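Worked problem 6 (solution included).
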Amino acid sequence: MIQLRPIIFVVGLMLCTIAAAMVLPAVVDVADGHADWKIFFGAAVLTFFIGGLMVLVAYDDSPVQLGVKEGFLLTTVSWIAVTTAAAVPFKLLGLGYADSFFEAMSGITTTGATVLVGLDQLPRGVVFWRALLQGLGGLGIIVMAILMLPFLRVGGMQLFQMENTDRSEKIMPRVVELTMLIAAVYAVLLVACAVVYAALGMTAFDAVCHALTTVSTAGFSTHDESFGFFRSPALEWAAVVFMLLGALPFVVFIKMLHGNRGALWRDTQVQGLLSFVVVVSLTLAGWLVLTRDISANEAVRHATFSVVAVVTTTGYAVTDYTAWGTFSVGLFFLLMFVGGCSGSTTGGIKIYRLQVAGMLTRSHFLHLMSPNRVVTLMYNGRRLPADVPFSVVAFLAIYMATVGIFTVLLAALELDLITSLTAAAQAVGNVGPGLGHIIGPNGNYSTLPSGAKWVLSFAMLLGRLELFTVLVLFRKEFWRS
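Solution. The predicted structure is:
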């Protein structure tokens, strides 16, 4: 039987944390002399009251060991509860219900799609709240990916179970220690990114906001022109570096802290991601030099920034890459599906699943050519567990089916095919920008109907939780108990 008391207690703590976070944009508005501080403060009081009440009702000093079922339910409920609370300030600021929930969901899932326009004229408290949501969401995603998903055996995630963990149905011991290490690495990257941005010409406010949305590979900007507002090659290259750092496995950073200096470069995921980015960026840059009136340096910079922004699901834009021709449009549509590494802040399919799928394809062809040949599948120097191939294939099939289902739902709301398809793909992959004349590289969804925003909000949640795969791959015992 599922234990509800610890779930209510943890969700209450999360709401109290979000309430405390709401005080920060209130402080920003107070410093600017803007009256919106009252809205954030009022939302903080309301959220803290509800969260605190849940904590008091569910508090129990006896030790509790959460199992897989509780962890699954906790992850789902907490994401919905936190998003609902985070949407309150947007609603009080005048946005509709659909817009408020969409903006909050996009922020907390680090998707980066937005319904707000005129960002340069908005009060700084609102802009900072969006960035802060993505910063908090990025940390939560890493923790979930490292601690929870491997035990749910979702789409091959069992490859990344941490060492020295209980291989039974229990979530790992020493969870507090690991969470603190993850938070420390994340905080160091945030501070380093903000310092670099400020040193290269951003204002302190822009540097902090963009650091929160770069390391979390989320993509909210303080300007309508996104990262292109700054028109600085140095800032663009710095963003490329920190987007890639946010897309790498945080477990590898922790291993490096424990003395394994070569862990980063020996990781198969890291090698695959960096190689893929380099090859695609240089290919696109070559295309730009041959077909557009653009210098080689500018082509490499714009191509690399745009490719990294989409592959890492950050979604920043420095230029309209849809104006580069149909080759570029087709390429960036495919890049929406890739994603970064497991155990990072990124969305998408993830590099390791594509690598495993490639290994399975190669193994199949070898078997066709030589039926008696035995092919051993190895990943990161270890033999693949027997259930990983099925998990990965099932994930890929359900992922594509989910994109298809949401495409049909959006098309039923009178959206054109390109808008429906790219909006569904970016939402499930938590990417942000789309393609077409309605949603472009800047990721603005303000003109979509309310129904489409609700549909996309649900798609973003499913994509981040990988819930659709969990529903298929859970063992029968989960549902019986």
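Discussion: The CA atoms of residues 216 and 399 lie 22 Å apart.
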